[in-house]
Amino acid sequence: MNDTFFVSAPQLKRDPLGSPDPKPTLVPAEPEAPVYIVAYDQNWPALFEAERAVLSKVLRPWLTGPIEHVGSTAVPGLPAKPVIDIMAGVHTLKTSREALLPLRELGYQYSPYRPDLMHWFCKPSFAHRTHHLHLVPLGSPIWNDRLRFRDCLRSTPAVSNEYAALKYRLAELHRFDREAYTEGKGAFVARILRTLTDERHLT
């Protein structure tokens, strides 16, 4: 790994759909983009579709499932950070490591964020992000949870509105701390997933 591209840091990378990685990770040496929430943009679905068309060709050797639009930009009407989140289903993380170089040629920057669960990329840089890409084993818990949470936001306006208000508050509190912003959403996401699980068990 190029030492000018990543630097060691004793901070934990976190994800609201999973527990923190207990080991120090590597973070990009360049400054990370601040957290800003903007109104929903009707162009976001088209931006995803355009990127999916490109990724479908590049990732064809490793795909075992669909390429999904996830995150807040995948929910009509929901305010969000203006970054298109994309999740691609792969067989294993080990075999899909071979995709890192082709993706780099497309402008995707790799970071070992929760490497036990996914391969994580952003484009075009950590300081200016337009896309996030997650290579995730198809059918894994994080794959299923992200789709369940997205679909709940799409179908339940009350949950979507509550989530939007939380995101605005957290963005104001943690403008220059993306980890704290993400961590702050964790309890909400966990509560919604528990509710969905409980409802499924009752049906």
Question: Could you walk me through the main structural features you see in this protein, from its secondary elements to its overall organization?
Answer:
The protein has 203 residues and is of the alpha+beta class. It has one domain (6-202): Beta Polymerase, domain 2 (2-Layer Sandwich), CATH 3.30.460.10. The chain has helices at 44-58, 93-96, 100-105, 141-155, 157-173, 178-184, 186-202; strands at residues 6-9, 25-28, 63-70, 84-90, 109-111, 119-124, 129-137. The chain has a 5-stranded mixed β-sheet, with helices on both faces. Strands 1-2 form a two-stranded antiparallel ribbon. A hairpin with a 4-residue loop joins strand 6 (119-124) and strand 7. It is globular. It starts with 5 loop residues before the first strand and ends with a helix.
Describe the protein's topology.
Blueprint: E1 6-9, E2 25-28, H1 44-58, E3 63-70, E4 84-90, H2 93-96, H3 100-105, E5 109-111, E6 119-124, E7 129-137, H4 141-155, H5 157-173, H6 178-184, H7 186-202
Parallel strand pairs: 4-7
Antiparallel strand pairs: 1-2, 3-4, 5-6, 6-7
Helix pairs in contact: 4-5, 4-7
